[in-house]
Amino acid sequence: MAKLRNFVPSTLFYYIVLTAYTIISIYPFLWMVSSALKPNREVLRNKSLIPNEIMFNVFVDTWNQLDFFKYFVNSAVISIAVVLGIIVVYSMAGYGFAKTKFWGRDLFFMAFLGLLLVPGVTVLIPLMQLLRALGFIGPDSTQFSTYAGLVIPMINGGGPFAIFFFRNFYNTLPGELRDAARVDGCSEWGIYLRIYLPLSAPVIATVGILNFIGSWNGFVWPSLVINNSDWFTLPLKLRDLDLQAVIQWNVRMAGSLITIVPVILLFIVLQRYYIRGLTAGATKG
Amino acid sequence: MTQTQLKSAYGSAPLGVKPRKTVRQILKDNSGFLFILPAMLIFLVFGLYTVVYSFVLSFFRWNGFGQFSLLPPACEDPACAFVGLRNFQEFLYSNPTQSQFFWKAFENNIIIAVFVTVGTILIALPLAMALNRAVRGQSLYRTLMLLPMVTAGIAVYYSWTFIYQPNGVLNSILETIGLGSLQAKQGWLGQPNTALLALMIVMIWGAVPSAMILYLAGLQTIERELYEAAIIDGANAWHLLWRITWPLLRPITVIIVITSLNRALQEYEMVYLMTNGSPAGHTEVVGLQIFNYGFGDQRQLGMASAMSWMLFALAFIVALVNLRFFQAKED
User: ipTM of this predicted complex?
Assistant: First the structure.
């Protein structure tokens, strides 16, 4: 043990490296906070992270101008709908692929995974045509129909990963579990709903957090589908905020901060599951 | 008597003939399909249908106006016509402006693929090794270092755009540390020679966290005894890295490379939000061209679809190579 220590740099060196890169990692966020608190005349001149004079009014004004709660609710509704849809539809599918038999099972599974290869931009045009043809969007669309049209393709986009994840998890559960429930007279649906689904809580958390963050941050797809500024998500509203001739950087930064804080909070609470989602599959061997 | 014959001897079917399953029995045997039915319906309509539609559309010329039927070939607009392979020919070689535009963007995709992948690995691996040693405070470091990945989106791109401004932080930092000659006077995103580099820095910044987490997970599976045994055999620190750590992390490196290549091929949202191809097409990428042909001012939906099938083909090749790689490893 003592010998190994001679071959690796001292611990202090590691901490210096880590601290240096951590600063790079969070610098844009620190810069966001600092600029949001600077007054207009200072924001372009003072390159220090610490404002000469801290002004909360830019932040408060932006908060009001951004109508935070309204767009927060819009974003939250969409993200929650995507997450719920993905969990309901693909936990079922994962169970079907892992534990039941039917004609063409493996073929269908490959078809789902094949969807992962299709670049997102490939299907944007057909999706827009489809939504228009089905009446989700267009002149007489409602907020509900627009959101439905927005959310369903997002659910589909999260599908391959979620199916893969749920299926692998259900495969690791022992078959005896199922046989025992069978003997007790439980139906296939009962087994899924009462035994397997509750056991998959950690997978639900992983799939949920990954997709929530993804849909919260999404910009291009919502910007194409939503054509009424009252229905905007936070990122769309943020883009709408500064269509003025001169960019007000402190307003922009305050708005950016408001947009990302919910995601950061959620990540800090659920990061264990987020990391599990990242490393799954990579370290099994 | 075989099993079947034995069974049929007691059943109603004649000897030697498999008993025919009733419809009821077939439905019962396949009832598991009901579990994937909702997923299947969404897949057929929003997945398979759109992919096929885009494929068919790539053989048409259409500016996006007028009614378009749910069956792509039957477009009802005079501005819409079947053109065969002409879309592909035009952006690949036959139309000088269009093909020059495309190949420039493709070149940028390649540059991004190479530099972002290499940069990500060169930064992520040492960080993971450091994080693996830093037992105290590991989770705090990890949380802070993961933030770039979680917040990918317009807010963070705004912050970077601000940092890259002509009178922004990056230029003033360079001035302070005496590298004023490296400053980009017209802003890092505004100058042809720095714009792509500036975008790639943001891409690397965003890709390092997940690569680092993967490497960290890999490092934690390597037995300490391996290193100790190697040291007894006279290995130095360089050997430990090249003969033990790097080969054992190879499967993880492969995953990182594949993910990174795929992202480099498909990236456009970030470029769209930060530069939209400016200055003068220097940060143009294929995904962004497809997007602009599809939703910009000069719409050519067939062209956009043709290009996106080219992209799909490339992603497919990357995936095949990936599959080969993994199979070779398992053998």
Answer: 0.89
